[in-house]
Amino acid sequence: MAQHSRKGAQFQAVTANRLLDGIVVYLTKNDDWSESLQDAEVAEGKEAADALLARGALFFEPKNLVIDVYLFEVEQTDAGIRASSVREIIRQAGPTVRKDLGKQAELDGVHA
């Protein structure tokens, strides 16, 4: 499984794509998958992140509910959880060609 964060990342979350429709989802504390990053469980430190990734991997094999399960770095801000990388910001919001449509319109101001 890929890891899209620095090795020394303090806070990480788990993301994947739902097999049913390809939507980007995030692993929650209740072992559900949410389309909102704000619902994601955030792990602090390497051991907690590894354990979180292992939980997420169970939804790939044997359950086949998601694909491409991996850790990514997040920041905890006063406004909530924020992806640290441009890659994850784009995955969260969707394609960048029409910001007036799709998730970009719904997330207006979240990435500013």
Biggest beta sheet summary: 7 strands, mixed
Low-confidence stretches: none
What percent of the residues sit in helical stretches (DSSP H or I)?
10-25%
In round numbers, the mean pLDDT is: 86
How large, in whole angstroms, is the Cα Rg? 13 Å
Number of distinct helices: 3
How many separate domains make up the residues?
A: 1
- Count the strands? 7
Shape: globular
List the secondary-structure elements in sequence, H or E: EEEEEHEEHH
**Structural class of the helices, strands and pairings?**
alpha+beta
Q: Which strand-content bin applies to the residues? A: 25-35%
Roughly how many Å apart are the termini? Answer: 30 Å
Describe it.
The protein has 112 residues and is an alpha+beta fold. The chain has one domain. Helix content is 22%, strand content 30%. It contains 3 helices and 7 strands; from the N terminus they run E-E-E-E-E-H-E-E-H-H. Strands 1, 2, 3, 4, 5, 6 and 7 form a 7-stranded mixed beta sheet that branches. A hairpin with a 5-residue loop joins strand 2 and strand 3. The longest helix is centred in the middle third of the chain and has 12 residues. The radius of gyration is 13 Å and the shape is globular.
